[in-house]
Amino acid sequence: MERKVTKSESAADQAAAAQRHSTTAAIMVSAAAAVGGFLFGFDTAVINGAVSAIQGRFQLSSFLIGLAVACALLGSALGAWFAGRLADRIGRVRVMLIAAVLFGLSALGAGLAWNEWPFIFWRVVGGLGIGIASVIAPAYIAEVAPARLRGRLGSLQQLAIVTGIFVALLSDAFLANRAGGSANQLWLGLPAWRWMFLVGLVPAIVYGVLSLEIPESPRYLVAKGELKRAGQVLTQVLGLVKPEVKVEEIRRSLHLETKPSLSDLRGPRAGLLPIVWVGILLSVFQQFVGINVIFYYSTTLWRSVGFTEADALTITVITSVTNVLVTLIAIALVDKIGRKPLLLAGSAGMAVSLGTMAVCFTQSTLVGGAPKLDQPWGTIALVAANLYVVFFGASWGPVVWVLLGEMYPNRIRAAGLAVAAAAQWIANFAITTTFPVLSQGIALWFAYGVYAFFAALSFVFVFGRVHETKGMELEEMTGEARQPALDQRSGNAPAPDSTTRQQESADPGQQ
User: 0.85 exceeded by the pTM?
Assistant: First the structure.
């Protein structure tokens, strides 16, 4: 006997279908935006396999090779600083297109540079694109993602970054092995190291094409008064039946009576709002634990431990694969156990693994002016380095980007992200430029000891200053230590209803 379908069941089926459609749409547009993260990772890591060849080709000192590696980071800081204001002025999607063009120009310029200064210039141009992508991708994803998926979709940025790192290192290894060495000629009379940069033109074009296909951020559209278009995007991406309610909620939270600017970040603590300082320190700690030493210099590092160039490149690729896999773990956990527990676990694990590496390098000796590790210390250092990548990749790598994309009030999100990202690139530059000098002697134990200290300090900071944002709508973010109430039956943090959210965002003084 055929069962009769009730109206309530039919409505439930339609609601479920609408949610599935909105989930798919949100994933697709977030993935397209995260391609900027792929270029971010690719462009920063591609120099890993080319460091030795560039140093030999241009006859660079330790300081200049450090500058050649780190110069992109100065451009990144500059790009990040201006990205927020530019995104608020011309829109998120147009800024993505600008980043794609900068990436493409950098790939061509760096690959064809005739001496160190043009090379450094084009790397700075690529850095501008990296800085822009580091701000715009997490901001855009946070602004289009539903609250129930925002942590996982926000983590796509880090997944794209580590995938870009992996592809860059894999490409470096393939090209170097094909030519018999990164300095040897490959195709069209060009050495392999030049092709390492030139292949970056392909993902830059892909990013530009995808940016033309995704909708503008609904929160940017509301800020510009395009309420109807914002409602259409909310319906398309979030599957809202009555998007005008959400549009009004966004409008209230934006405080449209004045235009957003960096002056909105001013506060009583050293000139900035407390939430802005939290973002800056999250960014600084993410870099001061030394993660990019592994991805910028690991080939040189493992050669000092006794591996050949080919073996060192292979180990670097394996490390990057590990980074991708643990990022997938973080994506699976971030919306279940929350942001803060992941950060705390990561800080503790990094402090131990980095401390182990520091101990290992106290046993190093100088051979030909470079540090050399005998066994079993070389193996222990290799294991500790990969455990360090595991702890970072499952916590501080993706979670910091999730928090930076979601923890600011709507009104200052782009500006707050810009300041935090600029601080991150400056910190990255400081770490990257100091490492080559330290690696010339036996002071590597000191370098890893410093990174271990900052990892331990990051635990204290997160425990005392970072607040959980799991399950909160963007319109709830006030920059204060307020968490959603727990559902007594399930223990989960439910998304508040529209009435509650509107009440919370109606008073401008509470944002």
Answer: no
